Amino acid sequence: MKNLHCINYWGSIYFYLFYIVLYPLCNFHICSINDIYLHDHVCFVYRLSVAGTNLRTEPKHIVFLSQLLLLFQFCHVCKTENPELEAKQVGTEAVITTSCSNPKCPKQVNTWHSQPSMPNSQIPAGNFLLCMAVLLAGSSATKVFQVFKHMGLCCVSLNTFFKYQWVSAEHIR
């Protein structure tokens, strides 16, 4: 019984740290919390929903292409293995197109976008938000894009950075 009390105590601390520290920073919502695993370590399993959050506050992650492509090892419609893959870059966005080899597949060509588009436009949200963040932080776009290049991160061009400012200024007028 003493060990269970210890797990509940530390579990409560982890929950409050998550709720008080991480929750306000990430702005995502906890839908449910599953029970604590009573194995060698304490672990919480959270079901998260980003429903209702805006594009700016939704959590974002750096994902390696090799790891992303592991998710496309089968057709998501008919489950046929090894569809033909085409990956392309649109600034910070990855676009994956799969072509299923099964002639009976109801949807043989599927396209997946790693980012939603900005409302009322076809601009990938990450592209626009990166440009906006650089501008609002008072940073040098050249320096930020150079950091991205050294890390191997896909990024918009300097021309696109200035184009988005021009497009945004037109909407204000």
Tell me what you see in this structure:
Strand 3 and strand 4 form a beta hairpin. The protein contains five helices and five strands. The strands form two sheets. It has a three-stranded antiparallel β-sheet, with no helix packed on it. It has a two-stranded antiparallel ribbon with strand order 1-2. The chain folds into three domains: 48 residues, no CATH class; 54 residues, no CATH class; 57 residues, no CATH class. 40% of the residues lie in helices and 16% in strands. The chain is α+β, with helices and mostly antiparallel strands and 173 residues long.
At a glance:
The chain has helices at 2-26, 65-69, 125-137, 141-151, 158-172, and strands at residues 29-33, 46-49, 84-90, 93-99, 109-113.
Count of β-strands: 5
Give me the oligomer status. Answer: single chain
**How many helical elements?**
5
Spatial strand arrangement across the major sheet = 3-4-5
The radius of gyration is 21 Å
Query: Averaging pLDDT over every residue, what do you get?
Result: 77
Largest sheet: 3 strands, antiparallel
Order of helices and strands: HEEHEEEHHH
Query: How much helix is in the residues?
Result: 25-40%
Q: Which structural category do the helix and sheet elements fall into?
A: alpha+beta
Low-confidence runs of at least 5 consecutive residues: 1-40
Question: What share of residues are in beta strands?
Answer: 15-25%
